[in-house]
Amino acid sequence: MISVISFAADTPFTNANNWGATGLMEIPTARVLETGKYRVGVSQINPYRYYYMAISPIKGLEIDGRVTEALDVPANPDSPTWKDYGNNKDKSIDLKYQFIAEGKYWPAVTLGIMDPHGTRKYAGQYIALSKQIYPFDFTLGMGNGRFGKQPLAASDREFNVEMFTHPRQWLSDAQIFGGIEFSPTPEFTLMIEYNPIKYEVQVGDMVQKKYFTEAVPSKINFGARYKPWDWAEIAVSYQRGNQVGVNLSFDFNLEKPLQPIFDLPYKEKKEEAANPLAERISKGLYASGFSDIGVKRVDGEIWIQATNEKYLFSTRALGVMLKVLDQILPADIQKVNIYLTDRGIPVIAFTTARDDLALFEEETLKIGDYWPLAELNTNVHELPEMSKKHKQYFFWGVKPEIHSLLNDPSGFFKVRAGASAWASVQPWKGASFITGVEAYPLNNVSTTNEPLSIPVRSDCVAYQKKDMMLSSVMFEQIAKTKYEIYGKIAAGLLEYQYGGVDAEIAKPLFDGRIFTGVSGSVVKKRDTANPLKFNNSDLNDNYTAAFFNTRLNLPEVEIALDVKAGRFLAGDKGARVTLSKYFKGVTLSAWYSFTDTSVFSDSYNNGYHDKGVAISIPLRMFIGKDTRTVYDYSLSPWTRDVAQDISHRTSLFDFIGRNTKRYLDKDSYMMQ
After folding, report:
1. Over the stretch 356-365, which tens digit does the pLDDT of each residue have?
2. The domain made up of 270-391 is a member of CATH 3.30.70
């Protein structure tokens, strides 16, 4: 008797197709990446080469980004400014949402939207159904545009989804596709698919005129995949009846460090037990990653303050402090008060009974029982008077830097790679004097473009092409007042392109559900020849920006929505909307702007919406121990002047970060 098992999960059939989406070879399936996973890869099936990435920020949603390179098809061959660009290339973003997960008796159902904006060379919308009868996975779908009878038109200024706007047109244009995957082992998969693409009618395709003047020999594609490790896969295929394809992809989990994070807990030596209590506590906390440590005892109550220098999450820092205190505090201490500070500014006050702490550390009380017994307060702006040990005034850091410039006529991908270093002195509470330098031994940034009508960023290459630069020389003061109001003022050479004055006020509301505030800056361009000078001495020749800022925090799903509304550097007024998703320290963001671009006289900025993606990755993901160091990388398809602001060393919304009651409640499990 043969038994057939039906699985509801998408695994193990969540692999990349030619262009990076979860699928077989050319066609997609109804499968999507697991939440929190991302994929990068490269594939080639002549005459296409794809560079792609994909991510699943929330359950059921997959976002795919790709660059399609047309092999041996030069971009603008008649223009001398494009002579170094190489093969023609196209950028696109696709969305894929699985709105019905597979069940025992029904398939997974996914809706896909391909390349909905811009040139739309590979646009289309599809519906796909996939049913797993392990070790087989069956897919059937239909789509228009790229998969349909006719290509879709370009749409430079807006998003088009014909499936919704013209459903009858979509239905009449759509064609059927399908395929089967067979995975006899977790490492090996065989594939066969029916690919309906009519390459010869895809006139918007960069390669159609040269390579597809008539129908391809076959619409049946065959392939095999091999997965030597959980995070790597290679696929080989035979497609269109005349081409061999290769696809190499790598999958990672944003919520899982490459190495388990472990910090050796502090253990007090027996001979130190006779030392004064304040000395013992200070030594234990300093060895555990804290500085500016103060200890004060009055009868059966003790107060401790410390700056967290090491731990990315404040609740993790609190947990480490509690472990140190539990092994040191004498039995006659009844109440423990902890103040966690950042740059000398109190951000959290935490109070616990000594008996509760002991029960928690011996695991009689679990975190869900212990957390409500403690008192948490983020509305704290003053610290009790106490002497401090291990006070630090000087700070420094070095980290690698990679910056890219996309789609310039002198070359599609320009990059500068090197390192940045900074040093700061913090003479008093909330104050910092900072100097930063950057060096790029690898730097091929250049441009054949001229700066646009109001060049607030379109002239950035004049700065970025330098192999060494003085990135900042500035003073910054942060303060926190009663009612949890934060303020910041900064002055000096604020970033590589601008210097001046920058100010901000912010306040969390409703236990951190909403952040609100205002900010503004008055800046001048820096001289490209002399890093300590401005480009001229005319005080009226400056740029001003002013914003009303709001952030909606949704810790339940680890999502934040930011809106920055007001006047941007070039004088265009409007708003920039940023959506961020958090994955245990990793932050993935995407932004889009809506501004009045009539202030620009050039056609490139006029009508344009600034957009892009960014990622912040903590170093702790790679080194197996905790650290607050974070690497930031952003990518925008074009360098334009629309909706631009200066770079801020400190954003108050980020300074507050997760130090609000809602997030601290969510992160309380990290204290264990």
Report:
1. 999 999 999 9
2. no
